[in-house]
Structure formats: C-alpha cells, structure tokens
Write a structure and sequence with these properties.
The protein has about 375 residues and is mainly alpha-helical. The chain contains 19 helices and two strands. It folds into two domains: about 25-125, no CATH class; about 155-370, Orthogonal Bundle (MetI-like fold), CATH 1.10.3720.
Length: about 375
C-alpha cells in the first residue's frame, strides 16, 4: 500500500491538483483580491481597491513576480500582461489623494469593469481555468463559459486526432492479431510456444531502435521504396515517412503483441469440440465462427482492445519521430508544456483529460464485462 501510495496515488493526486490550482494572481495581488471580495461587480471598485492594487504592484515589482500574474490574466483577457507591466512601471512614487484617478491616468483600461472582473475571477485558489483551456473554452469575467475563437482553438482537434489514431491502431491490431492468435491457439503446444516467442520479439528491442528502423525502412531511399522502384511499380519514391501512414505502421508494430497475448490466452481455453459440435448440428464455418467461436473469444477481444487503446493514447516518441506536424498527439503537448514552457497547469489538465477517458473506458468495460459474465483475461 505504501509503494502504491508513493509511486501512483501521490503523483496522480498532484497532477489532479495542479490542473485546478489557480493561485498565481492571488500570490502576486493578495491585497487586491481581498479588497475585491466586497465589490458588487457592476460599478467601478472603490478607492481602497485601487490603493491595494498600487501596493501589490509595488511589492511585486521589487520581488520580480509580476510576470506570473500578468501571464495568467492575459489568458483570460488579451492585453492584460502589457497593462500590468505598464502600470507597475508608471506608479506614482508618492502617496496620492485619489488612487483611482492615478491608476486610470496611467491607462484608461483600469476604468473598465471587465478588467476588475478578470482579476476577481482569477482569485483562486482553485478554478477550472486550465481544464477549460485544454478543451478550447474559457470562462469570461461574468462567469459564462464560452468557446475560444476558431483561429485559437487547438486542443480539441489534438484530442480528436489522438483518439482517432488510437482507434485506428486498435482496429489494425485487432484485424492482424485475431487470426494470428487463433492460429497459434490451434497449434500443438510444442509449435505454439516458439512461435509465440517470435511475437514477443518486439518486447526485447528498444522502442527507439524500433522507431529508427522504421525510419530507415520507410524513407525515400529506404527498403520499401527500393523494392517498389526495382519492380517498376513506381517511378519516383513514395512518401511513406512523416505522415499518418508511418504513425499507424510503427505504432501497430509496437502494440500488436499487447493484442495477441490476451487473445491467445482466451482462445487457448476454447475447446475444438465446440466447433465440431456446432458443425455436427448443421452450422457452416461462418455460422460456427459467429455463433460459437467469436462469443467465446470476446473476453480476449475486449481486453486486447482496451489495453492497446489505453497505451496508444499516451504515445509520444513514435508520432513525434515518424509522423508529421499534423500527427502530434496529446502527449506531445503535455511534454511541451512540462519541459518547454513550464506550464504545469496545462500539462496537468491535458493529463487529467486522458486519465478521465481511460477511467471512462475502463468503467464501460467492467460494466459490460460484468453484465456478460466476462472476466479480465
């Protein structure tokens, strides 16, 4: 239990927390956030709110922390980053009689109620900001949730692309793995065991080595194009690399054993006498397969599909190396936000979405498996 808690539960809880953690603005503008709690949201804030803003910006300027709040507020309202920096640089050095007039004189945007609504909306400590952003949505200052403009919407397309590629790879693995597992299950044990070892060969090879091998095979002057050209099937090399085709090929090669193993373990337990009994009762080969063999092998199909799909939606190295710019999956953006921009909130939000999809699929599987009397193979 301690091992699971430290290696799985604690990191998972940390990811979930970071996806809703929204304290950047409250850390930089604490007095302003506290003063805005009594604001009615319709009229301009009172003088104490403007005075709190001046004090917070002075402290943040000295500490060098304005960028954190400015970046967070700019996500909600474009131009807020420059507004905050401009105001911090132009603050009066001496106390003023009217803080509101002094701040509005720096930039008239501070006379806009929406700006103050944005600050109060980002008060934290928790909020759906990152989760909504990962779904190309945002919450306006008035609290309404709206979709991002079409030219700024990116992540929903990435999610759909990830699920589409994962479903495609799962379907290809099932189409290739089902007859292979069925054939292996029908062989004597002395033949099935060495052949199954060949299926497991990809497990013994580094993922990076396998990916590099596919790059060599599929490139313009690689093995496949060489064979096609020598047979005069094509006059110029075919573009087989850095596209969706290469992603499907490489991911199928890696994930096929994860489909074959659950299928084989289930099919090995199906007695040949069932098919013979169905044939003796007048059923043809197709009917025997559809009415007898396929239902009996359904647990292996469900387990294999679930396993391959869950692994596929988290792939990062393969699509990044053999795919093009339009084949990047969610994991690429998670790595980008983690290592490139240090935006842990967005990285965690996208991770939580993948986790939610995984749990949803597993819940559907367990419900269907329970109602059908199927057990995990």
């Amino acid at each position: 239990m301690l091992f699971v808690a430290f290696t799985f539960a604690a990191p998972l809880a940390g990811i979930v927390w970071r996806s809703v953690d929204d304290r950047e603005v409250a850390r930089v503008l604490p007095d302003t956030i506290a003063a805005l709690r009594s604001w009615n949201g319709h009229d301009l804030p009172s003088e104490p709110v403007y005075r709190a803003l001046i004090d917070d910006l002075r402290r943040a300027k000295q500490a060098g922390t304005i960028a954190k709040a400015a970046t967070r507020l700019n996500f909600d309202t474009a131009g807020f980053r420059s507004l905050l920096f401009k105001t911090a640089q132009s603050l009066p050095s001496e106390p003023v009689a009217s803080p509101r007039d002094a701040v509005v004189a720096i930039d008239p945007a501070w006379a806009n109620v929406e700006r103050w609504g944005t600050i109060r909306h980002a008060a934290g400590p928790v909020g759906p900001f990152y989760l909504l952003a990962a779904l190309d949505m945002r919450q306006r200052a008035d609290g309404n949730i709206v979709r991002q403009p079409e030219q700024e919407a990116v992540y929903v397309d990435v999610l759909l692309r990830t699920f589409g590629i994962s479903l495609g790879v799962t379907a290809i693995c099932l189409a290739l793995g089902y007859p292979l597992a069925s054939h292996l299950a029908s062989l004597p044990q002395r033949l099935a065991n060495p052949l199954m070892m060949l299926v497991l060969v990809p497990f013994w090879t580094s993922l990076l080595v396998r990916t590099s091998a596919w790059i060599v095979i599929l490139q313009s002057h690689g093995m496949v194009n060489g064979v096609l050209t020598s047979l005069h099937l094509v006059s110029t090399p075919v573009e087989l690399l850095y596209n969706r085709f290469a992603v499907y090929i490489a991911m199928t090669h890696v994930l096929l054993p994860f489909m074959v193993l659950p299928l084989y373990s289930v099919m090995r337990g199906i007695s040949p006498s069932y098919m013979k009994a169905a044939a003796s009762l007048g059923a043809g080969p197709i009917r025997c397969f559809l009415r007898v063999y396929l239902p009996l092998s359904a647990p292996g199909v469900a387990s294999g599909c679930l396993l391959v799909f869950m692994l596929a939606i988290g792939y990062y190295i393969l699509p990044a190396l053999v795919g093009g710019g339009g084949d990047r999956m969610v994991s690429y953006f998670i790595a980008y936000f983690t290592n490139g921009t240090a935006n842990w909130g967005m990285a965690s939000a996208m991770s939580v979405i993948l986790l939610a999809v995984t749990l949803l699929l597993f819940g559907v599987y367990t419900r269907l498996a329970g109602s059908a009397g199927i057990k995990l193979s």
